[in-house]
Specification:
PAS-like_dom_sf; flavoprotein; 186 residues
Length: 186
Amino acid sequence: MHDDTVPERLRAFFQDSPVALALAAPDRDNPLILVNRRFVELTGYSQQELFGRNCRVLQHDAANSEARAKLRAFLDDENAPNVRTPILNFTKDGTPFVNLLYMSRLRQLNGEPRYIFASQFDVSRAQPGRLQTYDRDLGQTLTKLSPVAAESGIIVEGTLTLIANSAATIAQAKLALAGLDDSSFL
């Protein structure tokens, strides 16, 4: 399921991407309007279950205070080009994972936000090589997205902020998962 206002070429691009992608409306509660098959595989939720809902559904009752603050700052500041942060998420069946979330805005030619673009990657069980492959794939996705979006009068904002230390990110993810033994997550 998807929003019919998403240009066909952009929808096709999303479905063909090797990384999990989501597209949300830039207003109200940022409802999801498009997710690709990789996103569905990662989360266990179908496109129909997610359409019109905020990605917060993936957080269940996890506090995620630091990540939420970063995401809120990005969403509240129209001039912030992008954000990248690990955040504790849960699959549909309740399995926890640490999502390395990347978000940026796709804008109309007049500068108005058209969509919130997001990519997700499970770093909780990732080896450094897989994370580097994801970084490469996301970088290529963003590079290929620009001309596809431009055909529909959409500008891709921001650039990929590379991870300086993949091993540190994976260690942070493992610590977050270890914290799930804390009763606050149960």
